[in-house]
Design goal:
Elements (H helix, E strand, L loop, with lengths): L18 H10 L25 E6 H12 L13 H17 L3 E6 L6 H5 L12 H16 L4 E3 L5 H14 L3 E6 L12 E5 L10 E2 L4 H5 L6 H8 E2 L4 E2 L6 H10 L3 H9 L3 H8 L1 H8 L1 H14 L19 H9 L10 H4 L45 E3 L5 E3 L12 H9 L12
Parallel strand pairs: 1-2, 1-4, 2-3, 4-5
Antiparallel strand pairs: 5-6, 7-8, 9-10
Helix pairs in contact: 2-3, 2-5, 8-9, 8-13, 10-11, 11-12
């Protein structure tokens, strides 16, 4: 089975992020900060239906780093004095992603801390990174075992990284007729985006305010089409991984090249076959000279090798990854480290979604689409229907300052629906769970 064209990307502090520009483009297009209301695009591979089961593949290292820095000020520690704020944060992020996307199965990947096949090939790989803070290091060491004890499916592959686990999970889903969403705060997984795989790129706004990148939206963020991100990253280089690219070529120039040529190999084929004018017409003679430099060509070739993710790691079969989790097991394992989470776990443990995530709502909105988070200044609240309150009920004010009819009796409790049932309950006609923002 051929490997997908996938990547490990980068961050060039001397060049525009590109991602932030892309987020601005999404916002300008009206696609950020609100549910996309258009008809679902059928961006699915052959044999993968738009409503196929969904596998959530989580980059544990990425989310734990984000949680550590976001919550370090609280210094939450267990009874033994061990730091746990990042552990609590990563579980909360996973639970929030599950609540947003209602997956059918879950896998969490972590980097192997002992060995690295990439560092064995290229000793400078990530060698410039400073030592991690002891509190972060301790929680990274504890996280895989703690999550596994809680019943979350965890994979750590000897010599490989969480990126490789995500890539292998995407291939497992594709091969099985499932969809996959990778959850990460890194750009590395942009290379995984294809007709059956999307990426929930976690930003500072949290899960609810973060974009889900698909083949339709990836070009707005990166400037290249799905399947081209590895070439973009190889040309630009990855300073965070200590991998220089073609020196002097940043993301915008790389994107212009890839708008005209399908891949970086096609660019070099044009240079080698006497078609230099085709490249010069796109980026000018100065860039052509930089591309021809032996060091640039060697850097790009090395980056393509090291940035390629493995799609063939051994993973449990999908039945072993299915949700829901056992709520008692989850809470017992987390509680042993003084991490106590309750209703927020509903999508992981097969519970019913709360009628409202910030305050109780009356029964007349039970069938309304669930919001992704508290509204700002009442934005997105239903129209005021106090004037039409049924006889025998009295209008009341909800916490958002809008008058609502009070129900004659509290609604009956809802039974747990399971992951597939939750997905159906949250889905409106014509709205795809992976359509842009879940």
């Amino acid at each position: 089975m051929s490997a997908p064209s996938v990547v490990r990307p980068d961050a060039d502090p001397g060049a525009p992020d590109g991602v932030e520009d892309g987020v601005a483009a999404l916002r300008a297009a009206g696609l950020l900060g609100a549910q996309h209301d258009g008809a679902a695009e059928e961006e699915t591979a052959e044999g993968v239906a738009p409503d196929a089961p969904l596998l959530l593949a989580v980059d544990g290292n990425s989310l734990l780093h984000r949680a550590h820095h976001a919550h370090a000020a609280g210094q939450h520690r267990d009874a033994a004095g061990r730091p746990v704020w990042a552990l609590r944060g990563v579980v909360s992020l996973i639970a929030s992603a599950a609540a947003r996307l209602t997956p059918d199965a879950l896998v969490v990947g972590f980097d192997c801390a002992r060995t690295s096949v990439r560092r064995a090939e290229h000793p400078a790989y990530k060698a410039h990174r400073p030592e991690k803070h002891p509190d972060l290091r301790a929680q990274l060491d504890d996280a895989p075992a703690l999550l596994a004890e809680a019943g979350l499916p965890v994979v750590v592959a000897e010599g490989f990284e969480a990126d490789d686990v995500l890539c292998s999970a995407a291939e497992l889903a594709r091969r099985s007729g499932w969809r996959c969403t990778a959850v990460t705060s890194d750009r590395d997984s942009f290379a995984l985006v294809d007709a059956s795989t999307s990426v929930l790129r976690v930003l500072n706004g949290g899960i609810g305010g973060s974009p889900v990148l698909t083949p339709r939206t990836l070009p707005l963020v990166t400037g290249v089409r799905a399947g081209q991100y590895r070439c973009l990253a190889a040309l630009r280089g990855d300073t965070s991984d200590n991998l220089p690219g073609a020196l002097g070529i940043g993301p915008k120039t790389a994107a212009r090249l890839l708008a005209a040529f399908e891949s970086v190999d096609d660019v070099y084929a044009a240079l080698d076959d006497g078609r230099e004018a085709e490249v010069r017409d796109v980026v000018g003679p100065g860039v052509v000279a930089r591309l021809r430099a032996p060091e640039a060509r060697a850097n790009v070739a090395r980056n393509q090798r090291l940035m390629a993710m493995r799609d063939d790691l051994a993973l449990p079969d999908l039945d072993a990854l299915r949700l829901p989790l056992d709520v008692a097991r989850v809470q017992a394992a987390l509680g042993a480290r003084d991490v106590r989470l309750g209703p927020s776990l509903w999508a992981l443990v097969g519970g019913a979604p709360p009628a409202d995530r910030w305050s109780p709502l009356p029964s007349w909105v039970d069938e309304a689409p669930l919001p992704d988070g508290p509204p700002d200044d009442g934005a997105g609240a239903p129209e005021d229907t106090a004037a039409g309150a049924p006889e025998g009920t009295a209008a009341r004010s909800d916490p958002r300052g809008v008058s609502r009819p009070a129900p004659a009796a509290p609604p009956p409790p809802r039974e747990p629906l399971g992951a597939r049932g939750l997905a159906r309950a949250r889905k409106e006609p014509g709205e795809d769970q992976l359509d842009l923002f879940g």
